[in-house]
Amino acid sequence: xxxxxxxxGEDEQDSSDRPAGDGGAGRTTASSAGTAPQVDRLNWRxxxxxxKSLILMTLPAVGLLLVFNYLPMxxxxxxxxxxxxxxxxRNSQWAGLANFRQLFGDPLFWHAMExxxxxxxxxxxxxxxxxxxxxxxxxxxxxxxxxSVVQAITFLPHFYSWVxxxxxxxxxxxxxxxxxQFLRQHNAGTWDFxxxxxxFSLLVTSQVVWxxxxxxxxxxxxxxxxxxxxxxxxxASDGAGRWRRLWHxxxxxxxxxxxLMLVLRLxxxxxxxxxxxxxxxxxxGHDAADVLDTFSFYYGIGTxxxxxxxxxxxxxxxxxxxxxxxxxxxAHRFGEDGLYRK
Amino acid sequence: MSIExxxxxxxxxxxxxxxxxxxxxxxxxxxxxGGNSATRRKGGTxxxxxxxxxxxxxxxxxxxxxxxxxxxxxxxAVTDPGILKYxxxxxxxxxxxxxxxxxxxxxxxxxxxxPAAGNSFYQAMNKALGxxxxxxxxxxxxxxxxxxxxxxxxxxxxxxxxxxxxxxxFKVGELCGTQLADLTPYLAGDKVKQYPNLAALPTxxxxxxxxxxxxxxxxxxxxxxxxxxQYFYRGDVFxxxxxxxxxxxxxxxxxxxxxxxxxxxxxxxxxxxxxxYIFQMFDFSYKFTVTNGKLVHKYEQPxxxxxxxxxxxxxxxxxxxxxxxxxxxxxxxxxFYAGKVLITADGTGAWNEADALAGIAANKSYRRESFKPxxxxxxxxxRLFLNPSxxxxxxxxxxxxxxxxxxxxxxxxxxxxxxxxxxxxxxNFGVExxxxxxxxxxxxxxxxxxxxxxxxxxxxxATPGNVISNPDYPDVTKDHCTWNSLAATYAYKPVFxxxxxxxxxxxxxxxxxxxxxxxIKDVYHGIKPVSAFQDALSTWKGSxxxxxxxxxxxxxxxxxxxxxx
Lengths: 342, 565
Description:
The structure holds two protein chains of two kinds.
Chain A: H1 2-14, H2 28-32, H3 36-40, H4 44-70, E1 81-82, H5 88-91, E2 93-94, H6 98-104, H7 107-126, H8 129-140, H9 144-155, H10 162-173, H11 178-185, H12 200-225, H13 229-237, H14 242-267, H15 275-284, H16 286-289, H17 292-301, H18 306-333
Antiparallel strand pairs in A: 1-2
Helix pairs in contact in A: 6-18, 7-12, 8-12, 9-12, 12-14, 14-18, 17-18
Chain B: H1 2-9, H2 48-54, E1 103-110, H3 120-129, E2 132-139, H4 143-152, E3 159-161, H5 167-170, H6 172-175, H7 184-187, H8 196-199, H9 203-208, E4 210-211, E5 214-215, E6 218-220, E7 230-234, H10 235-240, H11 251-261, E8 269-271, H12 279-282, E9 288-291, E10 294-297, H13 302-317, H14 322-325, H15 332-337, E11 341-346, H16 353-362, E12 368-370, E13 384-385, E14 392-396, H17 402-415, H18 422-429, E15 436-438, E16 443-445, H19 447-452, H20 474-487, E17 491-492, H21 505-512, H22 514-524, H23 530-541, H24 546-561
Parallel strand pairs in B: 1-2, 1-3, 8-11, 13-17
Antiparallel strand pairs in B: 3-14, 4-5, 6-14, 7-11, 7-12, 9-10, 15-16
Transmembrane segments (chain A): 54-83, 117-138, 159-179, 213-232, 253-274, 306-325
Subcellular location (chain A): Cell membrane
Main location (chain A): membrane
């Protein structure tokens, strides 16, 4: 996420279709080349020389992307095969679309799809706004020491593994946890939250909030710090109150980042977490906990039916691609940058 | 899935498994190596007649004098001998140095902390073996994902441990003859007599390591009486409450006891998950039973539904620890040690010295004991099906030359030296003075011994037949042997016992029956009603391919090769 924002910042500096004197002013070569449209048509060799340090810096990331994201894509072929790891991709029998036909006829798959969308929707409504609110709250705290302490505390759980987070929840509100033992000892009814399949999406979301809300505020804090402080001073001297400043300066200043995060979130709508659901699958049953990723794992890898798992994975990727494309289009329509500037 | 399999199957080795359903990276870009699928053998199944020609001759060893001798039960079950004291001065039993200076790499799973490479114990072993055996223990929890990547890339090491409960996952049937060496030319019939310690391994254990009527696997921890598991209780707590466990003679008795023992306010529940070995009470089969000459899958046995019904009732009763109902199996032992659970199901390997040590660390009076087997309604005699005669097998790489295979077999012969011999002591306890000191009851590991000498390195390549021995806790040995000789009288061989069946890929999904197994779990955790299982079952039988699978077993295996009785 942080890198995305950094890249976006880079974009801003690189952008050449802005009015002169805004973004591109820092670049001596660019401005010396003349008017803006011509900058784009600069000789690639000149551009390469100009940007060589930036390109060098991104090379390791591009390398990692190639090795870990693009190279494995060759494996998607297995979705169209009856893949046997002992035969390898070259020698496995060709299946055509048989795996997909089986997939679309599998009620368990559609159920996993339903769960994924449902959990995703709940998280969008209940999780997404929280880091924004937290960031605004933190930004309003003037004492920098309190601010960094609060930030550190909310930030830390992000580094816990899901096993730890779930264990912690289990110890606190599980069937034999602190809360329920307290209720039992006081002859009150127990609260069955950890094993209740009906409220599972709320459980999952509350865990995500606890773990990742603090992490999520970084991006928004960065956006907040980029807002020109002079604007606040000017607004204050014009008599704008706290709420007016929030409405007319802070929120518009954050808007592009919020939209960007929303677009990314929508693109990831079908990825609602894997370990978290895997660990709690037996507590609430597979009906409530199976999402597309765990479906691929249990019904593909778990039963050595790798091709089936790959088919489910590809289907998920295609839908995600469409989602992110659609969300980006929508962002452009509303005049925002989205993932990239049009 | 893997958690339960581990608990069920690691019966003989003193192996505590803290396995979690491990994450697996997609095996996407791997593979593509040589091998022509048209000519490559696609595995096969053992037949009684074909196996007889390849099996090694059994030559019993007289090296071990048992304090509690083996007993013979029904279904040809023979219990492991019990030994109360470790020999004070272990005797040498393998005359010659087995190795010829060869270099081999060995891969074994290890559920624990991996010892440092090239440590002093490994060096001492190499010196004694006369060969360089580079041990590469790998994390047991992710072992099921380690092996498929190696086999897909055709990069198995010279010697590898492939636990039997992962046979289907590792496609061992297909690996045999292509990547794993056929040992029949070296061990069949009287040829095994060159390796007397291997000849002393029970025939059943060799059968369990056979594929396509040929010898491939060298068995570890072979036993003539292996059960998937059993039901334990806290003997110390029962005694303090004046409860006699022998009074429990039916499932009703057990449920009533559950009510008596549960004190939720005090954080004590009677039961952990009771499902894992419930077939011992309700008498449904391991996988199939034969009715009127036809194979019937266990899911379709009426006893299966009865068992599921009962477990659902238990889950709803409030006598099961909430964490067990939440699917947390990894802490089952901790709950039992802490006395938060008083009755638990566990593998037979849980009953040993290490367990006594861990339990006593939590509670001084800790004592693990086991219910005498009983049937659900208390009227019929219980029936306990046997596990394969060995659960762990090591295999040699097919690329090894004959002289190298012979050298490795001589090393295996050394590793299989009888219990209490000098060789056994070195393999299991290391070097005296460095890795252990000889105490009053036997070897006591030192700090370096605890780190370097692991039960899951060399013994996963070969061991002598199983022996029950807990020198510091003779009572555990006595309890265990007594229970075994009683339980052995109820033993029977399940259908397809010790037969390694290679199920074709097109039936693999139906064979794993993941959707049904998931639903079963939901039912015995009390999340879903029993009717959910019936729904899942009818889907499995039809579009899930279950009926076709049973038909395949019937015509291809049972009608042609029998049921392994």
